[in-house]
């Protein structure tokens, strides 16, 4: 568990069906400015009430993905990715997603996407706001773009939830 107060994990030992071999049951990946207070906080609290040990990063802004986040992803049994309008506008979110998808492939990490007011096909094909984000990356991030695109496509092809207009 991370030692700084900017990282939080809910904890409880009341859920017998969840293995305790991992540090966290769930790693939450989300774009804070889009969903932190209107969706992700509620999801985090609900998981905690069910005894599901959940990691989320509470830093509001970062320049680079912190080693603690990579370690938390590796130490989680699963990830819930909350795709939202500005998710792809964060290189940090995209790097996190690449790591999550690597853990899915290499460690059997379960990945559940939530499409929060975004069309899953926009994530899959990098269209709409996802396409706009990549247009801004073409110049300076050419080496990372193929991995980001592949991770978005793979994650969007997974079974998950599509939430729109409060439904």
UniProtKB/TrEMBL annotation:
<dbReference type="Pfam" id="PF01582">
    <property type="entry name" value="TIR"/>
</dbReference>
<keyword id="KW-0539">Nucleus</keyword>
<dbReference type="GO" id="GO:0007165">
    <property type="term" value="P:signal transduction"/>
</dbReference>
<dbReference type="GO" id="GO:0050832">
    <property type="term" value="P:defense response to fungus"/>
</dbReference>
<comment type="similarity">
    <text>Belongs to the disease resistance TIR-NB-LRR family.</text>
</comment>
<dbReference type="GO" id="GO:0005737">
    <property type="term" value="C:cytoplasm"/>
</dbReference>
<dbReference type="GO" id="GO:0005634">
    <property type="term" value="C:nucleus"/>
</dbReference>
<dbReference type="InterPro" id="IPR035897">
    <property type="entry name" value="Toll_tir_struct_dom_sf"/>
</dbReference>
<keyword id="KW-0520">NAD</keyword>
<dbReference type="GO" id="GO:0043068">
    <property type="term" value="P:positive regulation of programmed cell death"/>
</dbReference>
<keyword id="KW-0963">Cytoplasm</keyword>
<protein>
    <submittedName>
        <fullName>TMV resistance protein N</fullName>
    </submittedName>
</protein>
<feature type="domain" description="TIR">
    <location>
        <begin position="22"/>
        <end position="167"/>
    </location>
</feature>
<dbReference type="InterPro" id="IPR000157">
    <property type="entry name" value="TIR_dom"/>
</dbReference>
């Amino acid at each position: 568990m991370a030692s700084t107060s900017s990282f939080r994990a809910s904890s409880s030992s009341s859920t017998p069906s969840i293995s305790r071999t991992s540090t966290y049951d769930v790693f939450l990946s989300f774009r804070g400015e889009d969903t932190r207070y209107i969706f992700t906080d509620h999801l985090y609290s609900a998981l905690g009430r069910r005894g599901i040990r959940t990691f989320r990063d509470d830093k509001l802004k970062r320049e680079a993905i912190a080693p603690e986040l990579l370690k938390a992803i590796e130490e989680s049994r699963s990830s819930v990715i909350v795709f939202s309008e500005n998710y792809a506008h964060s290189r940090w979110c995209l790097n996190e997603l690449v790591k999550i998808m690597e853990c899915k492939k290499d460690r059997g990490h379960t990945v559940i996407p939530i499409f929060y007011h975004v069309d899953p096909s926009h994530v899959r094909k990098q269209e709409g706001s996802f396409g706009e984000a990549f247009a801004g990356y073409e110049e300076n991030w050419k080496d990372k773009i193929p991995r980001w695109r592949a991770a978005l496509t793979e994650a969007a092809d997974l079974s998950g939830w599509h939430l729109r207009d409060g439904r």
